[in-house]
Amino acid sequence: MGEPYALEVERGKAREFARAVGGDLGADGVTHPTFLMTGVFWQGPESSPWPADREMGRVLHGEQEFVFPHGPPRVGARLTGVSRVEGSEVKQGKRGGEMTVTRVLTEYRDDDGALVAEVRSTVIETSRAAS
Fold this sequence. Notes:
The protein is mainly beta and 131 residues long. The protein contains one helix and five strands. The protein starts with a strand and ends in a 5-residue tail after the last strand.
């Protein structure tokens, strides 16, 4: 499990993200449902659940899921994220070699400790570099 890290939902960054994915922030300040993907930019190495020696040239994004108990966060929210590996399995690849499929859960909580979001990522690590 990685160390907790802070993520502040800034209006300018939320607006830029919304525009980049073809949306609009809107007057209510509710972020785009996938905005929390920017959390990776707030994570330092100590916050990552991955081993430091991971060869990122062999890592592929597999799937993403967002769960919001009360809707996506709003501008001004101060969140604390914690990421951990939920599970991992090795499978035989169709083109030869093995691939490791890993599920990572990042929980975001507000200043009161209430759960704001769960972000699940499925990551695939191939036995050789992706081409």
